[in-house]
Known about the structure:
Elements: H1 2-58, H2 68-120
Amino acid sequence: xxxxxxxxxxxxxxxxxxxxxxxLYSATSLWLFYTAWRVHAVIVGxxxxxHDASDTMSKIRSVSGDSIAESYYQQAGNVxxxxxxxxxxxxxxxxxxxxxxxxxxxxxxxxESENLKVSIN
Length: 121
């Protein structure tokens, strides 16, 4: 008689453990998707600011004519603009990785929920 009670208790503990795993996978995927969205927002804001600054720097003209400082700032503006473009490319890379990891977590949660249904039956 005690053996049946122990088996029932173990199955209940296993059921609870699998539910917790499903919740953790789901929460992790939501967190990864939110982080991808925040990375996108932060990098877009940064690249917009960098493009504005680089445009301003590349349009600097001195009053007395061509000077070394003027050409320096114009070239620095071009460098900042290129850096902003590179940062935009990195944004796509980081977002793709975060979304991929989030999808993996969702797939694992779905597999665990399927295993939970099978173990109940």
